[in-house]
Write a structure and sequence with these properties.
This protein has 13 helices and twelve strands. The chain is an alpha/beta fold. It has one domain: Inosine-uridine Nucleoside N-ribohydrolase, Chain A. An eight-stranded mixed beta sheet has the order 3-2-1-4-5-6-12-9, sandwiched between helices. Strands 7-8 form a two-stranded antiparallel sheet. A two-stranded antiparallel ribbon has the order 10-11. Strand 10 and strand 11 form a beta hairpin. The radius of gyration is 20 Å and the shape is globular. The chain starts with a helix and ends with a helix. InterPro entries: Inosine/uridine_hydrolase_dom, IUNH, Ribo_hydro-like. One of its GO terms (molecular function) is hydrolase activity. This is Nucleoside hydrolase. It holds the Pfam family IU_nuc_hydro.
């Protein structure tokens, strides 16, 4: 008999839920992991969708929300206060969700690292170090980055001891040419890596962080049709209306530049939730998605990969369970409205 079948047998023989006991999610589901989410909430709105999904997931204990900067020349926000603006956008969303003040929201640095060995200082860096250094909990810590790597790189440079106390899940980096080809008219460096190349070099080249990477060919799978935005998201209360409005406003702005997005949008940060909240019940892991183990490459000064035969093994996710991810998001929005 397998371990899973034995545990199920125990549950049936010795049920822990009586007939009169509530079976709501808050009674049956408790956090299995801690997370800190770090994202450019003032940029591409995909981060706001991921944040909504994350805070509505009962198996996750959100220990911090970090608003991070964009590339200095980014069209979403060319101000000098990009991280501060990201905090404002995250706070607006939490207010709509009626969750304001339930999670600490902290600004990261408004600028990237000057090189790959000099950390920036910010309250967000302090938050990561403090949470990773806790000894009063057995819940594993995941730092979820949907943009640049400034804060996590700076945290590990500031206190190298935390490198083995967390798992970094990062949306970013170009394709690995032995696994996938880049898309037509691709940008180089890849968008999230280009936010702070020195920070990416610090994480890949110098740290021993446990890393799960979702490169461009992975996160581009998270395609949301506009039809589902209209039918599955927009009608779902104030949160659905707000998220749809943010995305539709962006689509309208893009049309002014004569760009045709077609009828889909890539919610590329949502796999951060798929790989953490939606893991398997037994032998917990993101078992519905596929990854390969690769030696961690070096990141060169141009933002490309250089082979590193002695690099630590990292997970590179190739195929994501997008149906599970979006169906769960739609359901949680409906339950929350």
């Amino acid at each position: 008999m397998t371990k899973s079948k034995f545990l199920l047998l125990l549950l049936f023989v010795f049920p822990c839920v009586s007939k009169g006991q509530s079976t709501t999610a808050n009674k049956l589901i408790s956090p299995r992991i801690r997370v800190i989410i770090d994202n450019d909430f003032g940029g591409d709105p995909d981060g706001l969708f991921a944040l909504t999904h994350l805070v509505l997931s009962p198996s996750i204990e959100v220990r911090g929300i970090i608003g991070s900067h964009l590339n200095a020349n980014d069209g979403f926000d060319k101000s000098k206060t990009q991280a501060d603006n990201a905090v404002k956008e995250a706070t607006k969303l939490l207010t709509v969700l009626k969750l304001k003040d339930q999670f600490p929201v902290t600004a990261g640095s408004n600028t990237g690292m000057v090189n790959d060995t000099t950390p920036v200082k910010s309250k967000a860096v302090d938050l990561i170090i403090k949470e990773a250094s806790r000894t009063d909990t057995n819940l594993p810590l995941y730092v979820l980055c949907g943009a640049g790597l400034t804060e996590i790189a700076s945290a590990v440079l500031t206190d190298p001891k935390i490198a083995d106390k967390l798992t970094l899940v990062w949306i970013g980096g170009p394709e690995y040419i032995d696994l996938a080809l880049p898309p037509p008219n691709y940008s180089s460096p890849e968008y999230n890596l280009n936010i702070d190349i020195p920070a990416a070099r610090a994480v890949f080249n110098h740290s021993q962080l446990k890393l799960w990477q979702i490169p461009r060919d992975g996160y581009r799978q998270a395609i949301l049709p506009y039809s589902e935005l209209q039918l599955k998201i927009k009608p779902q209360g104030e949160a659905g209306k707000y998220l749809a409005g943010v995305l539709e406003s962006l689509m309208a702005r893009i049309q002014q530049y004569h760009l045709n997005l077609g009828e889909t949008y890539i919610l590329g940060d949502s796999p951060l939730v798929l790989l953490t909240a939606l893991r398997s019940s037994f032998e917990a892991d993101p078992s519905s998605s596929e990854y390969v183990l690769k030696p961690c490459p070096f990141i060169n000064a141009q933002g490309g990969y250089d082979y590193n035969a002695h690099g630590r093994n990292i997970r590179v996710y190739r195929r994501l369970d997008i149906n599970l991810m979006f169906n769960d998001f739609f359901a949680k929005l409906e339950l929350n409205k």
